[in-house]
Amino acid sequence: MTELGNPPRRRYDEGCIAAHALDVLGDRWALLVIRELLLGSKRFGAIRAGLPGISANILTQRLEGLEGQGVLVRRTLPAPASVQVYELTALGLAVRPVIEALCRWGVQLPGHDPRRFISPTALMLSMAAVARPGNGPDLAAGFRLDGESFAMTVRGGRCEVVRGEAPAAMEFSGGANAAASAIYGPRPLREAVAGGLVAFSGDLDEGQRFVDLFSLRA
Fold first, then answer.
1. Domains of the chain, residue spans
2. Cα-flanking dihedrals φ and ψ of residue 45, to 5°?
3. Residue 103's pLDDT is what?
4. In this structure, is the dihedral angle defined by the CA atoms of residues 188, 114, 163 and 52, taken in order, positive or negative?
């Protein structure tokens, strides 16, 4: 037993490089903790808000473990904020393609339900991962979800998202789960807006073209 009374971490004890990576990322919640930090630093409470199923004790353990492996760091914001935040190192940011690959693989599995809890960061990352922009016109949209703001651009066959506000011709606002249902669900955007599922500003036809880039349907 460790000093805190928790059982020692289980390791794969293999020379396989994938197993070596899973010694760091394979603990439950570890990948999702990293996911919540991929678009920028967050305070402990904000990370936990994006992972409602995790206890404070387990989150503390995962943060300490990932910090010990050089995946993330703690730092204190300058005054007047003067609060402690967690942010990914270059090693941590390099996990993003792994999470994006899991999103694309997960699309092929039955049973996905966009009505289940999804954090704003998780929604933005999943959209960027599954986007099929093709060679269509450039599009940009803002998102205000559960108190967080994001800017997403689709240009040159690529989809990119950053945290923060940026001028855009259209904007989605509301809860992250409502936005997920509006984007991934079967209803046209016009119906989702009329039904109050999500608020939208901008041209609805252009908004529908944007939403269609993220369809999970075959």
1. 17-94, 98-212
2. -65, -35
3. 93
4. positive
